[in-house]
Amino acid sequence: MALVVLLVIVGTLPAVVGVMLPPVPAARLRGPAQAVVVLGAGRARRGESYRASARGLRRADAALAVAEAQRLPLLLSGGCADGKGPSEAALMAEALRHRWRDTAPWLEENSRTTWENARFSAALLKERGIRRVVLVTDPAHLCRAVLSFRAQGLEVEAHASASLPSPAWMPSAEALALVPEIYYEWLALLVYRLRHF
User: Taking every annotated instance into account, which residue ranges of this chain make up the domain DUF218 (predicted)?
Assistant: First the structure.
């Protein structure tokens, strides 16, 4: 029992959780980035309609900040898994327009997985002559996302949409909540390595 308690306590420490994250490949841009890409994170129901999930909004906000700081175009990537209602990309675009009226992002609305995010986004970007991107998603998701986009022939710089809680050695429920997500990402990386990489 004491061991279980100890493991739970250790799992609440941001410094420990940070070590568990899949390592993000180093940036490989042979020139300045040409666009910012953000990956959708699901949709939330609002009565009979949909809205972007809280996680998707956090990603979109982070991506817009990078796009504005570097004066780059923004691509929102994400379809709808069930084929009903607006896409994740369209919902993120709608949310961004409410906050920043001058935003006119590009939309990729057909993807249902991270691999499809990469495949369909790369096709849109290459049509516009873009091969170097800043990719924005959650910290745990960055490794798989970067590898997926690189497999499409893009040069990628990773940008996390959030940071771990601080101070690093102070127990945090937010850090503990990341642990299942991290386990999922390690498993997804194994599956992707067998199927795609």
Answer: 34-188
